[in-house]
Amino acid sequence: MLLLAVSPTDTNLNTLKCGYRLMEQNPQSQLKLLVTRGKEQGYLTYAEVNDHLPEDIVDSDQIEDIIQMINDMGIQVMEEAPDADDLLLAENSNSTDEDAEEAAAQVLSSVESEIGRTTDPVRMYMREMGTVELLTREGEIDIAKRIEDGINQVQCSVAEYPEAITYLL
Predict the structure, then answer these.
(1) Which residues form the RNA polymerase sigma factor 70 region 1.1 domain (predicted)?
(2) SS3 (DSSP) at 97
(3) 29 phi and psi angles, rounded to 5 deg
């Protein structure tokens, strides 16, 4: 199975050529692509990290360790991509592909021992749930109100049914 990863914000021709990257089953190449992309951009988003992580890394501690290693390499991991002004202000010296290769090798050597296919349903569930967006306060309030309205509708419907009233009395 091959997946394509494209960033719609990339305008650099070289990045666009590399933007259609094959997400191979090889976890080392996925992490190498992730580190290379981070070195090119100077940052990564949590979504990019999650998309490039191998399927079998589901433990939150492993994910945090990988994000920490990426941060240690000088690549910021952010919630969302910064705008162009922020990038110009925080721009570091341009690093070469060799630096990115070295950094990727460092991540791979530390993560390689932890990678292994898992059939544990709990780990698989945790991996999938890590990609689901959590509810906001407003979202929780909205759902609670809908549940409350549903309960009220059921109570009204039961109250209109004469046999239910006699049963309750």
Answers:
(1) 27-102
(2) helix
(3) -70, -30
